[in-house]
Amino acid sequence: MKKLLLVYGHALSHHALHTLLQNDLRLQLLYEVPTVREAIRLIHQQPLDAIILDISAPNQNGLEVLCDLKHAAPGLPILVINGSERPDRMIHFIRLGCQGYLPYTTQSSQVIPAIRSIARGKSCLMPRHHQLLTESQPMRHEQLSLRELQVLFKLIKGQPVNAVADELDIAPGSVSVFRAKILRKMGVTNNAALIRYALTHGLIPAPTTLSRQTRQNPDQTDSNNTGSLAKVF
After folding, report:
1. Which alpha helices (H) appear in the chain, and where do they start and end?
2. Would the N or C end of the chain have less CB density within 10 A of its end CB?
3. pLDDT grade for 10, boundaries at 50, 70 and 90
4. Contact status, residue 94 vs residue 132, Cβ threshold 8 Å
5. What is the pLDDT of residue 129?
6. How many CB atoms within 10 Å of residue 188?
7. Closest Cα to residue 21, out of 10, 31, 35, 11?
8. How far apart, in whole angstroms, are the C-alpha atoms of residue 155 and residue 24?
9. Which of the two residues, 3 and 217, has the higher pLDDT score?
């Protein structure tokens, strides 16, 4: 029996996934958690065969969560569920290393076979995903290490250095070093440019609301950023 961890999103999709998994005798839903922090804590408690990442939760960037999970458990296959059908968003998840990607329009009958597949260590990507991989060009953020990507996603949503350090359990000085490497590799000079890049290339969706300070002077995000870019998938 394959042991699974579910990082769930909206209550409705959580209920649907729970029901589907409980009805399959070959799959054991060992843990169900709403946050990546809880997921990371549980990953080290018992061997798992796969993670199911439901990215339907509001105010959460699925790409950021995927990076955090990949860093915590590099060898554990992850199936992303309820993703966008926008090509730029799909390709980011696939290039970040998820073993499967099911958009929100996926039929429920396709979910369990996909979970079984990744739990056996196989990928579960559709033909159009392979086509996207073939046709897409490498992007600047793809040269970042996984840890640098984690820091990037937290910086572009407005977290100050100390908050990033606390979340990643590293020293504030390490965050500053990672930030300097990110800026150099990305060819930009400040956090505002990182935010513009992320918005332009679909790393985060266009925000519905920004702090007034950030809208008026985005370059202030480098020194005193208290605003955030909310993610609604």
Report:
1. 11-22, 36-43, 62-72, 87-95, 111-119, 127-135, 146-155, 161-168, 172-186, 191-200, 212-216, 221-224
2. N
3. very high
4. yes
5. 80
6. 16
7. 31
8. 40
9. 3
Confirm if 21 and 6 have CB atoms less than 8 A apart. Answer: yes
Residue 222 has pLDDT above 60, yes or no: no
**Single-letter residue type at 112:** I
pLDDT in tens, 165-175: 999 999 999 99
Q: Burial of 215 by CB count in 10 Å (0-12 exposed, 13-18 middle, 19+ buried)? A: exposed
First to last CA, the chain: 32
Q: Is-contact 22 48, C-beta < 8 A?
A: no
**C-alpha span between 99 and 206 (Å, rounded):** 26
Taking 70 as the threshold, does the pLDDT of residue 7 lie above it?
A: yes
Among all chains, which residue has been given the structure tokens 């399959």? 24
Report the alpha-carbon distance of residue 139 to residue 118 in Å, rounded.
27
Confidence of residue 207 (pLDDT cuts 50, 70, 90): low
Nearest Cα to 34, choosing from 52, 9, 3, 55? 9
Give the integer Cα–Cα distance in Å for 127 and 143. Answer: 25
Which pLDDT tens digit goes with each residue over 82-121?
A: 988 888 888 999 999 999 999 999 999 999 999 999 999 9
**pTM summary value:** 0.83
Structure tokens at 217: 């002077």
Instruction: Give CA–CA dist 122/77, Å, rounded.
Output: 8
